[in-house]
């Protein structure tokens, strides 16, 4: 209780609230723009959080994440292009509704459904995270190693179209994580007498390079390769939150929020899976399933409440176990680590006020998300008219300045460019970039823990399988690997 | 757009890089105290695994016939196939020059130059045949680049107290 009161004091200061609001606003703007992902939005704002206290910095990034996910509905509604992958299902009904001249109505439903989904997941996060963290306190070095393997296997399996390519991407991250001074013996590895590499590859240039620079490089190609970008011809009527119309579908709202939170909490499952599952469930529950896909409010409620509920769900494994489930939470976790805070169960015991501050900041971010959309939805509609070439140049400028500003080391800028090019090609050839970041984050954890575990057991590897929690993680990882391989094989076999 | 032929090339590049990391790992100390792992263990194990998985991926690609075949061209493309490649290369190169000139020219000048050239390159390459370049638009772009770089400089240095490189003339 004391921690909660202290946390309330950390969040309810005018400058902290202002920063959370600013993060939410920027997230909404970036989410509204097709091609700018939530992970990219967080990566771009990371450098600004450096001088901030942890709760303030994380509040800003959480606001960005909530905003980016909710903002995805704007282009989904007006252009039939999902602003973020999780708003793909929103296009199915919001766009047809907008074509009927009811874009404001569609966005009004999106606003309320996103808010309720987000608040629901925030409640679940606050209730479930502490007991999970409490359980995870029993973990020793063997369990942490097995958990790192589990996290890497999951994200490698779901982030790429091919399991082998996903694993290669994860291993590339692990290999890059070995650069620097070795965590146990203090030996220098791959440093080439470069002072900037002594402490390892800096996480910030890697995050910005892999998620922002690579995305803009892709946008440059898409700018010429794709067809002309369509501007919305849909007339905007009054976009005000449609409370009654949304709450009328309370069953869909409840089931989708639950599905979204659960799917978000399963590492690797996030993204569009939750909203499609909810959409499908809502269609099955509906008395008028034939109306789905024609601009039906229930479809919008299902998709939007679910994709914002995903955020709180995804924070559960990230904060309690240190396992981010997908790209955006991996970047968020990077942000937390850059602040000098390692996510995991000890965060709850050592920094109680910070973790509860993060929970409260997440609630506040959802409230800001509602208010900003309520009064500023027209702004996000205007954002869609900003010329893409100006946007690409501005984002690249922010990438360079953001990385340089942190420690005035130009080497990190070159490193970011290298990661940008690597990320572009990894995405282009379906390897994915999320496993690289997870490899980078989990590499030092995995290596130091396995070496510590073997030191304690006198070099006996059986320590990994004789401890039940460690064995469970390894078995689940193996099962997931085989399941994904079987699924890949089924998809590539014709007539299956 | 050609995709899968360069898929094979990208596999080869990654293979070469992993091989190089593996070769470098042999120079690391391979002894460890108390039965634990040596500092060389992880780099060797990981780079070997990458090499192995890349070889499997290449063999699978060859068997499936996807490694060396061409993708269908994009029907919606508004520009010839070489244009996106040139644009990509130009923007990537421009980023390198931006990084190189950031400290010698200071933030304001290098950023204004970067913004101007980046937008100009994309505009010129996306120009329709026969379309002329209006001087007014060039001047507008120059004004935009200069205004944005000065505004961002002030926001970062005054608002966030972040030190950006300057050439020491009038504080910029």
Automatic annotation (TrEMBL), chain A:
InterPro entries: DUF112_TM
Residues spanning the membrane: 12-45, 57-79, 106-129, 141-160, 166-185, 197-217, 252-277, 354-381, 393-426, 464-486
Top-rank taxon: Bacteria
Alphabetical UniProt keywords: Membrane, Transmembrane, Transmembrane helix
DUF112 domain location: 17-438
PANTHER family attached to this UniProt entry: TRICARBOXYLIC TRANSPORT PROTEIN
Protein name per the record: Putative tricarboxylic transport membrane protein
UniProtKB/TrEMBL annotation, chain B:
Pfam families on file: TctB
UniProt organism field: Kushneria indalinina DSM 14324
DUF1468 domain boundaries: 10-165
Record carries keyword Transmembrane helix: yes
Keyword list, A-Z: Membrane, Transmembrane, Transmembrane helix
Positions of transmembrane segments: 49-69, 81-101, 107-126, 138-160
Keyword Cell inner membrane: no
Lineage: Bacteria, Pseudomonadati, Pseudomonadota, Gammaproteobacteria, Oceanospirillales
InterPro entries: DUF1468 (IPR009936)
Annotated protein name in UniProt: Tripartite tricarboxylate transporter TctB family protein
